[in-house]
Amino acid sequence: GAVVSQHPSRVICKSGTSVKIECRSLDFQATTMFWYRQFPKQSLMLMATSNEGSKATYEQGVEKDKFLINHASLTLSTLTVTSAHPEDSSFYICSASPISGGQPYNEQFFGPGTRLTVL
Amino acid sequence: SQQGEEDPQALSIQEGENATMNCSYKTSINNLQWYRQNSGRGLVHLILIRSNEREKHSGRLRVTLDTSKKSSSLLITASRAADTASYFCATDPPRGGGNKLTFGTGTQLKVEL
Lengths: 119, 113
Fold this sequence. Notes:
The complex is a heterodimer.
Chain A: E1 4-7, E2 10-13, E3 19-25, E4 30-38, E5 44-51, E6 57-58, E7 67-73, E8 76-81, E9 90-98, E10 109-110, E11 114-118
Parallel strand pairs in A: 2-11
Antiparallel strand pairs in A: 1-3, 3-8, 4-5, 4-9, 5-6, 7-8, 9-10, 9-11
Chain B: E1 5-7, E2 10-14, E3 19-24, E4 31-37, E5 43-50, E6 55-58, E7 61-66, E8 71-76, E9 85-92, E10 102-103, E11 107-112
Parallel strand pairs in B: 2-11
Antiparallel strand pairs in B: 1-3, 3-8, 4-5, 4-9, 6-7, 7-8, 9-10, 9-11
């Protein structure tokens, strides 16, 4: 089956530092990846759509200069939380959508998530 | 917010009982999907139902969809302690509207021995 990995699984950093989170599709190519944020006991909120070879599309209210997204290859997207603050502490989940092969819909496969704690 | 609503927010049942969770959404959809999330983990895809389908089964899972009411339900029969998790519905827009998923607020299910 399609597998998506994230690294690191958890990170603790000091306020003001930047943190990079990687999302990889291990056995398929993905032109589109999605980044979500999830606060405790809440649902997933889409932050941005990462498109290979082009700029990411951010959802309303998400600061593009704070959450930098790079989708450099068909199997890797990175999310960098710049100048992180305690309010950025959250669970970040990515998903990847395989290149359409005539499927009626583009299924998304989710990574295991990254727990970010900013002190 | 376009986020869907799910009810109940939390559900506690005994092993062997059935669990029913409901999801309502706000806009037209192409598909509706249900996911499970164990505490602190990623999402596991359970089942997808298309907008032109009304009911779908997969093992102990039964999903219904009523597009006129913009609602769906997930029934887990003969629940097990291992079913304890959060359950989310997610919708994607009609074809041509992109592939973004909008998640519901989720139901936390606890199955007790």
